[in-house]
Amino acid sequence: MRTGYTLSKKLTPEAKKRLRARRRSSCIRKSATYFYYRSVRIHAKPREVAMGMAIGLAVGMTPTIPFQMLIAVFVASILGQSKITAALGCWITNPITAIPVYAGTYALGAVLMGRPLYPHISEWFASHSTSMELFKSLLTDFALPFWVGGFVSAVPIAIAGYWVTYQMVIAYRLKVRAKRKDRLHDWKWDPKHGWFRVLLDNKEKKDSE
């Protein structure tokens, strides 16, 4: 512990920045790998798995934190889709991506509604004298653009998520099926016909394992 602390103190600011970026990249890569295997290994129909992911992604684009997973699982259970992938899909907005995602959805909604953007929040708060004016402005200037941008961006993201997840599940299951098929067969040599594949019986399968 002291060694790591001492080494971190000796690093230059640029090296520390690269180290933090490397750790962040490793965390994202591990999370993506976990979500991939968690999705493709679910024992459900590929369409149900993909639809669950689409539901989760769509809900994740809306400003419903911290109720996204509850909403996604509820909708998936009503529609008879995978509740696990619905919960996983909500993680499109996580502690790393939440700020850029919501900033993008707000900007999209504001542009579509013809509303001005507010880069300086403190000035915006100071421009409203009463709490009632502030509440009304919160609904019209922030809440509505958030929801409009979230719903509009949720549609293409959900469609893309459905297609990608469906293809991944199909590819993974075909790969698993091919491996199982290979374990059931073996190559044997015949002087007359050469090499050929034969189906192993139970005893031969146990011996090969």
Describe the structure using short key phrases:
single chain; 9 helices; elongated; disordered N terminus; disordered C terminus
Characterization of the model:
This protein is mostly helical and 209 residues long. The chain has one domain (41-208). 74% of the residues lie in helices and 6% in strands. The chain has helices spanning 2-10, 13-40, 46-60, 68-79, 83-89, 98-113, 121-126, 131-184, 202-208; strands spanning 185-190, 194-199. It has a two-stranded antiparallel ribbon with strand order 1-2. A hairpin with a 3-residue loop joins strand 1 (185-190) and strand 2. The radius of gyration is 26 Å and the shape is elongated. Residues 1-7 and 203-209 have low confidence and may be disordered.
What profile does the largest beta sheet have? Answer: 2 strands, antiparallel
Distance between the termini: 44 Å
Number of helix segments? 9
Low-confidence stretches: 1-7, 203-209
Into how many domains do the coordinates divide?
1
Helix and strand composition category: mainly alpha
Shape, principal axes of CA atoms:
elongated
Task: Estimate the strand proportion.
Answer: 5-15%
Q: Secondary-structure blueprint of this entry?
A:
Elements: H1 2-10, H2 13-40, H3 46-60, H4 68-79, H5 83-89, H6 98-113, H7 121-126, H8 131-184, E1 185-190, E2 194-199, H9 202-208
Antiparallel strand pairs: 1-2
What is shown here, in short?
This protein has 209 residues and is mostly helical.
